[in-house]
Write a structure and sequence with these properties.
The protein has 233 residues and is α+β, with helices and mostly antiparallel strands. It has 4 helices and 16 strands. The protein folds into 2 domains: 117 residues, Rossmann fold, CATH 3.40.50; 90 residues, no CATH class. It has a 10-stranded mixed β-sheet with strand order 8-7-15-14-13-12-11-10-9-16, with helices on one face. Strands 1, 2, 3, 4, 5 and 6 form a 6-stranded mixed β-sheet that branches. A hairpin with a 5-residue loop joins strand 10 and strand 11. The N terminus is likely disordered. Keywords: Signal.
Length: 233
């Protein structure tokens, strides 16, 4: 009988994360293996990854909403750990509950890049991607609308947007990154806070806010292309 009770308890513990609904995720503003906050933009990148999975994410230094302040168990707690060797950068993530129980441990993300920033970005990307399928959380679908303007004619197209972009401050404006993380846009400040000069790959245009949407506008021949961009500043 005691063995049966123990087995039931173990099964309940194993299934608890799949059954639990977590609305929030809390990320450190500084990982313990670095001396400064958001080193190599890794904390912002980690935050953006969990936001893309559908969580409402806060840094551990942020002022938390009342719901989370009153119930810390509504959140998962994410941290990264380093196990690097001389020629190999190695990191992994742990996702814990409010009782410090490990719910998910990622695979070891590795990189042989010599440049530290590239190495940690690659290793973080691999480690984070390894836990995607383990996060029992439904992501909302997003669409990217392309509006082709030629004279009075307007043609709309839709393409799947698999991730949201996140803004990281630079000395001249922002860079918009995805969760891999890759830089998708470079934005340069103008005298208007809602207008930026923008570069996307080899395409140059403007990045503007209209009707509460951010648009990347550029020309293809004589056609003005206006692309809706899902970005969080």
């Amino acid at each position: 009988m005691k063995k049966l009770v123990l087995l039931i308890v173990l099964l309940v513990n194993c299934l608890s994360f799949a059954q639990e609904s977590y609305k929030y995720a809390i990320i450190p503003k500084k990982f313990n293996f670095f001396k400064e906050e958001n080193k190599y933009d890794l904390n912002v990148i980690t935050k953006s990854f969990f936001e893309n999975q559908g969580f409402e994410v806060y840094f551990n230094s942020d002022i938390l909403p009342d719901e989370l302040s009153e119930n810390r168990c509504a959140s998962i707690y994410v941290d990264a750990f380093e196990e690097s060797s001389l020629f190999l950068t190695k990191v992994y993530f742990e996702v814990k509950d409010c009782s410090n129980n490990v719910l998910i441990k990622s695979e070891l993300g590795t990189s042989r890049e010599k440049d530290y920033k590239k190495a940690f970005n690659e290793a973080f990307g691999k480690a984070l991607n390894s836990i995607k399928s383990k996060l029992d959380f439904k992501k909302s679908d997003s669409n990217k609308d392309l509006i082709l303007k030629s004279g009075k004619e307007v043609v709309s197209k839709s393409k799947e947007l698999p991730y949201r972009l996140f803004a990281i401050t630079t000395s001249t404006g922002y860079k918009l990154v995805n969760e891999k993380p890759e830089t998708v846009f470079l934005l340069y400040k103008t005298s208007d806070n809602f207008v930026f000069l923008a570069i996307k790959g080899e395409i140059k245009g403007v990045f503007i806010k209209k009707n509460d949407q951010w648009l990347f506008e550029h020309y293809e021949g004589e056609n003005l292309i206006s692309e809706v961009v899902d970005v969080k500043f």
